[in-house]
Design a protein that fits this description.
Layout: E1 32-33, E2 47-48, H1 74-92, E3 108-112, E4 118-122, E5 131-135, H2 137-154, H3 158-164
Antiparallel strand pairs: 1-2, 3-4, 4-5
Helix pairs in contact: 2-3
């Protein structure tokens, strides 16, 4: 039985954590804190930590205001990382940070069940939702293509860039 994950945020001040133990973030993925005495206030009477210069992405980030819960896997984490880089560059130029959005219409999770078997689940944005789209060896090939094309993208390879950009 899967029961979810526990974030490792022991180093984060308690006033920046949600009741579930994840780092609270603004719509721009900036870390927010429960304090009305600091400038840079955001929604719900919270303020931005360090003037909005600290960001949280991936598994440690709590729910992004205005978005459905994101899956705790590499796809949203990668998109969050790219978004934060763009926001840091904007802040360096004196511009405002932009809100994060999740561009995918559905979430996809491909899970290996050994070297020759796997399962691909789609539309699993909420716990208990989704459906099995693929099973078996084809999932292994899909995962291998994803892995290879992502590595190729990082190397600025043509196939990786065409696949993911």
């Amino acid at each position: 039985m899967c029961i979810g994950m526990k974030p490792h945020c022991e180093f984060v001040p308690a006033y920046c954590l949600s009741p579930r133990g994840f780092v609270k973030v603004s719509k721009c993925l900036q870390v927010s804190q429960s304090s009305s005495s600091v400038d840079n206030s955001v929604d719900n009477g919270e303020s931005l930590l360090a003037g909005g210069n600290v960001f949280a992405i991936g598994n440690c980030a709590d729910l992004v205001p205005g978005l459905d819960p994101l899956p705790k896997n590499s796809f949203p984490a990668e998109e969050m990382a790219a978004h934060v880089v763009r926001n840091i560059r904007r802040l360096e130029k004196g511009k405002e940070a932009r809100q994060f959005y999740w561009p995918w219409l559905s979430s996809v999770s491909a899970t290996s069940l050994g070297p020759k078997d796997g399962v691909l689940v789609m539309n699993n944005r909420l716990p208990g939702s989704g459906f099995v789209a693929l099973r078996g060896r084809l999932v292994v090939w899909v995962k291998e293509f994803i892995r290879w094309s992502k590595v190729d993208e990082c190397k600025m390879g043509m196939l990786g860039m065409l696949t993911w950009r």
